[in-house]
Amino acid sequence: xxxxxxxxxxxxxxxxxxxxxxxxxxxxxxxNKVKREASDRYRGFHxxxxxxxxxxxxxxxxxxxxxxxxxxxxxxxxxxxKLPQRPVIDYGRCSFCGLCVDICTTGSLQMTREYIHVSDxxxxxxxxxxxxxxxxxxxxxxxxxxxxxxxxxxxxxxLDLERVxxxxxxxxxxxxxxxxxxxxxxxxQAMKEASRCVGCGICxxxxxxxMDIPQYIESxxxxxxxxxxxxxxxxxxxxxxxxxxxxxxxxSVCSVGIRGEPVAIRxxxxxxxxxxxxxxxxxxxxxxxxxxxxxVGIIGSGPAGLSAAYFLAxxxxxxxxxxxxGRPGGVMRYGIPRYRLPDEALDKDIALIEALGVKILVNMKxxxxxxxxxxxxxxxxxFLSTGFGLGRSTRVPGTDHSNVKQALPMLKMxxxxxxxxxxKPPVPKKLIxxxxxxxxxxxxxxxxxxxxxxxxxxxxxxxxLERSYEEMPADMDEIEEALEEGIxxxxxxxxxxxxxxxxxVKGARFKKCLRVFDENHRFNPQFDxxxxxxxxxxxVIEAIxxxxxxxxxxxxxxxxxxxxxxxxxxNEYNQTAIEWLFAGGDIVHGPDIVHGVADGHAAAxxxxxxxxxx
Amino acid sequence: MGEVKLFxxxxxxxxNGNFSVHMYxxxxxxxxxRPLPGFLxxxxxxxxxxxxxxxxxxxxxxxxxxxxxxxxxxYAMGVEKIAKLDVPERAQWIxxxxxxxxxxxxxxxxxxxxxxxxxxxxxxxxxxxDRDRILDIFEALTGARVYHMxxxxxxxxxxxxxxxxxxxxxxxxxIESRLPDYENLIFKNRILHSxxxxxxxxxxxxxxxxxxxGVGLRATxxxxxxxxxxxxxxxxxxxxxxxxxxxGDAFSRVYLKFKEIPQSIRxxxxxxxxxxxxDKVNVPVSKGSALRRIVPEGMAYVHIESTRGEYGFFVVSxxxxxxxxxxxxxxxxxxxxxxxxxxxxxxxxxxxxxxLATMDVCAPEIDx
Lengths: 614, 368
Hints:
The structure holds two protein chains of two kinds.
Chain A: E1 46-48, H1 58-62, E2 68-72, E3 85-90, H2 99-103, E4 109-111, E5 126-127, H3 171-174, H4 187-194, H5 202-206, H6 213-222, H7 225-235, H8 239-245, H9 249-253, H10 265-275, H11 281-285, E6 295-299, H12 303-314, E7 318-322, H13 331-334, H14 343-355, E8 359-361, H15 372-378, E9 381-384, E10 390-391, E11 404-406, H16 407-419, E12 431-434, H17 438-455, E13 460-464, H18 476-484, E14 488-491, E15 493-501, E16 504-517, E17 523-536, E18 539-542, E19 546-547, H19 555-560, E20 563-564, E21 567-568, E22 581-583, H20 586-589, H21 593-613
Parallel strand pairs in A: 6-7, 6-9, 7-8, 9-22, 11-18, 12-13, 12-18, 13-14
Antiparallel strand pairs in A: 1-4, 2-3, 3-5, 10-19, 15-16, 16-17, 20-21
Helix pairs in contact in A: 4-6, 4-10, 6-7, 6-10, 7-10, 8-10, 12-21, 16-17
Chain B: E1 4-8, E2 20-26, E3 29-36, H1 44-48, H2 68-83, H3 89-113, H4 115-118, H5 122-142, E4 151-152, E5 155-156, H6 162-187, H7 190-196, H8 204-210, H9 215-218, H10 226-229, H11 250-274, E6 298-306, E7 309-317, E8 325-329, H12 333-343, H13 352-358, H14 363-366
Antiparallel strand pairs in B: 1-2, 2-3, 4-5, 6-7, 7-8
Helix pairs in contact in B: 2-3, 3-5, 3-11, 5-6, 6-11
């Protein structure tokens, strides 16, 4: 390339500069009066919408300059799914990269186009963003009026909103047997799912058992499952069960789930348990309690009873469980169908509890095989966890017929039959199930399986008062899977009568339900009497709720206890009005496995305090 | 007359940043020169090992302030090479546009920057003002004027809108219309000629021996440009030329930079025309949130052509969510350290800033 040569001297050369007189200047004055607005995407000062912000602290984790600290705000109450803390940004450190905005789980954190803030007070640069933004001194905009600059979009989003899909058995295959539907994550899938977690810990606050969820998910991410198991057993000895059938409230508040699908916390828990053989538990958990000379009796071996037994045993107490049925496990053994919770899973959890020295006496119905007073005399403290064993009835005409059944005894019969412990349950060709909760789903789907095995086709009609799938108390997964398996739903119908001809059930008549709850959120259904349907069936199963049975308690104990709507009132350590008597599970908090586990844990702590001071 | 020790640092308008040269001079002849880096050392390479793969994007542009995008591109391409990641085509074109825009901005600053050491003060005014037009584009596209933090692992952070494309077309037309003025006012100026022509010659052998790349090498007649010899992005799909010279002196180095501006404009125009429409400009390197995205085990060296020469990142991953090692090959390392020690003795004091300016010695990339 030719280099530029110096031109020959030219008399007129300096005059060339005159042409710039007519042009706009290349350099312009620093705009003092007219303030220069920043671009649409400008990364200026932060704003944070507190109504959206959940205090998860993910912004502070990604911050490359450690400029963001989470600070507890006095007066901000702890709600479900929110932490009472908000980010504080130190503009002396902030590099305005916007990563905090891009990773914000809720989208509450954004940046404005304000970029001028002048102050000689260093404190003015440490700032807790609110929805009004920084009160910038000598800024371009009035306080609270700065337009939005940098926001995240799908390209800059740093969260992973899509869950690793859980492999499940196809509906056509699974409806033919009681095989477990969910296959479980592989190592690779579990690692991928675990890497979606941001570790905020909001789940821990919401979980009734306060499980250390971020910690065990991180263990999976790091590939250290043994550490994960230790985290699980700190708060939940029924992790195997909870890993399959927990109501997973943790997932409903998961911060990743606000804009996307929540982290599959339940499946990750299950992955840890499924990956470690039971023989290794003793070595990993290494529970070597010092034996104490006090004993505790537990009535009922459901989730609360087993949980209390585990924690008491780890404290060194001598624990005996009295179980009325032939096998321990309560609702986990006799209520939840096998395709959701196989016996082997439960056995694994119970085996560990028994290995700790807990004695489980089966076929020991209190009030029949042993009296309550005998138990009370034998032990220093007693824990009641008898659950909700009785079914409720709609009490419409015809429900006293022998082919109108209750869901719980039917589920028990089916499980006993599948284990070879009992006779085959009656399988109707056409079935009506009344109810919209998880038990209604369980019985509908169980019967659908039996029908397929018996007749090769499904004919189950499930009717509920609630008028939509969203209103129904059952989990959406359950409803979706039931639909796939061929169950017909009729939401928004209330029963009028069971039609019986020649002493045989012919079906049932229903009327349209207009509303379930009144303005005060109390159960008070209203019907349209003119809108009725008839559905044919040879059997009707009611699954509209369960109730406790306190008949085993002596009269004087019942009189001393305090009840509220059929549940026993306790203090925070699950202690009842009688100081040596503790209670937990369904009879205190209503039906929920993980609540039972939490009650067991709390009661164990309470019993320990009571017995230590005695 | 005895030897005098002279400190030549940021106090001089010709010095690039926080860097200094200690000189022993006799009269105005340099007898010995010693570069003194260290004032800017922030330990970038080590700091990167403590941060997530994604949060490093806030740190890397700082390795070279006037030309941040080359760092971002090298880092991102290094990680993508290890992870064998398919970057969306549109994102690759956008990267090319960003890299060429920053090249123009940097060359404008270099052409302006030569005004400082030689006392031609129109050049800095023009260079800086016209560079600002490109910074306006960056502000609209990336959200910031200097530290763009825009080219990220897996693509770019946000898509280019038609409004920004339009802005680029218009700015390119403007810059192109300004080039004859630059030529007339600066490169036909007597001051520039008498101060730069035939001064500070670096021969081909010397350049090759030290490992000088970029205009320092091209001014000696070697047509070495990573965009041509080992094309990355889509540089093999666009037409452009590599200006070279044979003189090897300070003037040819500056003039080559100026001559690269129209070539970059050519590349950007082709990229804007050929860039496919797509609303996807980013893919994650692995599943998970940015806190836990992992890069598979492996290592990669990626080099690209910066305005100062070959710029490279060596990235090592041990399969975790943070880098195991990131090493940077700063393009001005040879001429900024060895060159000063070896080739400044014998020149005059006023030549020292000219060396620094025409060789584009960038202090933070030596001091990383």
